[in-house]
Amino acid sequence: MTRAIFVAKIKQMNLVIESRSALNQNDQGESLPVVMRVYQLKDAKVFERAAYVELIDDDRVLLSADLLGSQEVTLAPDATVRLSVPMEDDTHIVGIAGFFRDQGGAEWQLTIPKSQWKKTDPVKLVVRGNRMELVP
Q: What is the pLDDT of residues 77-109, one digit of tens each?
């Protein structure tokens, strides 16, 4: 008896990024928009080791060996951004960077395995202050 194994392909990367009213605050406590970059990657190693300045200034060169695609969005305080783009076949990891004005104690980058889209679609991210977190 022959058994067939079918692997569901993830064709679309649906991502919802929500911010809270306290976002990317300046010294006066005012909330400001933050630039977010979403990278489709073959491997996460270079992205995870990258310094904030390296990614903000030279991400395409730094990630060139692994980069399959990227999108940039500006997230305003107390707003929602929906991103829906084709998921590249060779994507294994989606890397997300939030370029907050204050990097001290920031959680400014995270990685999401492609398999996450099999569990939850869309994948949801919440951004508050200078931190990002994946919503289960």
A: 999 999 999 999 999 999 999 999 998 888 999
Distance CA 45, CA 66 (A): 9
Confidence of residue 6 (pLDDT cuts 50, 70, 90): low
Cα separations in angstroms, 2 against 5, 7, 8, 42: 10, 16, 19, 32
With CA atoms as reference, report the closest residue to 17 among 93, 85, 96.
96
Tokens 């909330």 appear where? 31
CATH code of the domain made up of 12-135: 2.60.40.4150
- Tens digits of per-residue pLDDT, 29-69? 999 999 999 999 999 999 999 999 999 999 999 999 999 99
Residue spans of the domains in the chain: they are 12-135
Give the pTM.
Answer: 0.90
* Cis peptide bond prior to 122, omega within 30° of 0: yes
Yes or no: say if 74 and 17 are a contact pair by the CB < 8 Å rule: no
Q: Give all strands of the β-sheet with 34-41 in edge-to-edge order.
A: 67-75, 34-41, 93-99, 109-113
